[in-house]
Amino acid sequence: MIRTPLRPLARILSARDKGENPDVIERENIRLRHEEMRDRARLRAEGRLLVLGVFFFCAFATIGARMGLLANAEPAEPRAGVAGAEIVAQRADIVDRKGRILATNFETHSLYAQPQQMVEPERAAQALADIFPDLDVARLTKDFTGKRKFLWVKKKLSPEQMQAVHDIGEPGLLFGPREMRLYPNGKLAAHILGGASFGREGVHAAEVIGVAGIEKQFDDRLRDPGRAHLPLELSIDLSVQSATERVLEGGMMLMNAKGAAAVLMEVQTGEVLAMASLPDFDPNDRPAPPVEGSPSDSPLFNRAVQGVYELGSTFKTFAIAQALDLGIVNPSTMIDTKGPLRWGKHRIRDFHNYGPELSTAMVLIKSSNIGTARIAQMIGTARQKAFLQKLGFFEPTALEIVEAKGGKPLLPPKWSELSTMTISYGHGLSSSPLHLAAGFATLANGGRVVTPTVLKGGGNAAGERVVSERTAAQVMTMLRAVVTEGTATFGEVEGYAVGGKTGTADKPKERGGGYYDDKVIATFASVFPAHNPRYVLVVTLDEPVETSGSEPRRTAGWTAVPVAAEITRRVAPLLGLRPEIEPAPLSGITLTSSANQ
């Protein structure tokens, strides 16, 4: 920068020669210098204001954009966190009705690799394959020697596996702490619990989310940090569930069945004490869903809830209960059972010839299709539909597991008079064993609708009344007679007064329509004690065959009934029921007072 002197010598000398005042030149130069300084200061200030304006514009634009994103985002509760732990992995426990652990959290570690830090990647790949046989050596070697900077090796490790990896001594193999879901009882209650898996994953934490069953149904509740210390209490009794599954598995094998299901329910509250479906799985190592074949063949399929079947003669109980309540018949009313019963080109036959007529009670005890169909004709289609709808056979059950939504009953596309007749004895309408258990519980508790639940204390108050207490008591007496003198004599358990109804339904073909000649669904729906009903037990076997005799036997009386009896024998003491002498009928007994003695 060239600085101009205030009193340039040449100009000063020239001004003196001309007689001018040299001070004027100095004042002029001072003015010019001040103007120049002012202009530079103004330019500098304008530049600073411009930069500051751009800064404020960018800041307000950023804030406005963020506010817009927040306004359009879904509302969510804020989560407190610290640096490096943004993923909330905490999850509440699940316990049975007595507080015993069904599902909890377990601290473990994940294994990941940073190949650029590896010293001997080929040796590390081979060593990992020796520890984890499911890993591919060639693939690991390619990943470790390539350009990747990070890769997961294993999402969860046992302490023994972690130590083995640590002994490799490879600095590029690193561990990250995390929590995993642990089911300490293995397969027990697998279809109720469902299972959990990892959602969002980080090096130091992983999000545990429910994928099926209770875990998925109550995922938000279980992941709520504010309630993580409060376990989710189920109505399931761990001891009863274990005994039910053990006996059911043995019965399925003994009866050569393809699958099996059992539901044990309190008749007053609808609380499910045990629910089993076989084959089952271990939720600690939940298998992948099937990609081909029938979904019902997968161990993930819950036969007790998702499986909808024609449940055979168990439905006769509902037809007779409705007829009794309507006053159409009474237990001693004689019903025409001459067969076959013709309706158009269709014929309805009985398994045995029961003669020309049976009483209403004997129609149920002997399980007459013809007699039940004639009673259904008296009831009529409209009233039958309304009754079954009240019992819950038109919609999926309200059970609190996600699979329950898939158990929607299959109704006839056209509910004709023939449908009314066949549905009365369990053909033409398919429902789940849980539907059947709820229906029997409704009759057992005096006639009020029951809503199934797997939550402790989750039972609703008494529902809508569908039959009178008198009718319900008459039905219980008949169901008791089915066991003592009817089709379910193998169901008797001494001291517990079991009542129930058998059902054997031909299994429909998957394709082409029609039914198999040698495949059935065998069901036994029982109540105990019959004189003071407290529990309902439904056992269903898929394609059972009892082979101890000279000919194979498939009916429920030979297959499902003995299995249900053994379950009752095992679980009744666990439920606190003591064997007792069944009250005798008062007929033929004269009551006297001590005053007359």
List the helices and strands and how they pair.
Elements: H1 9-17, H2 22-72, E1 94-95, E2 101-113, H3 121-131, H4 137-145, E3 151-157, H5 159-168, E4 173-182, H6 190-193, E5 195-201, E6 206-212, H7 213-217, H8 219-223, E7 232-233, H9 238-254, E8 259-266, E9 272-278, H10 316-326, E10 334-336, E11 341-343, E12 346-348, E13 357-359, H11 360-366, H12 369-379, H13 381-390, H14 417-424, H15 433-444, H16 469-485, E14 499-508, E15 515-528, E16 535-542, H17 560-574
Parallel strand pairs: 1-7
Antiparallel strand pairs: 1-2, 2-3, 2-4, 5-6, 8-9, 8-16, 10-13, 11-12, 14-15, 15-16
Helix pairs in contact: 3-4, 3-5, 9-17, 10-12, 10-16, 11-16, 12-14
Write a brief structural summary.
This protein is an alpha+beta fold and 597 residues long. It has 3 domains: 1-47; 94-233, Alpha-Beta Complex (Penicillin-binding protein 2a (Domain 2)), CATH 3.90.1310.10; 239-283 and 300-574, Beta-lactamase.
Percent range for helical residues?
25-40%
Structural class: alpha+beta
Uncertain regions: pLDDT < 50 for 5+ in a row?
77-85, 590-597
CATH class division of the largest domain: Alpha Beta
CATH architecture of the largest domain: 3-Layer(aba) Sandwich
The biggest beta sheet reads: 5 strands, mixed
Secondary structure tally, helices: 17
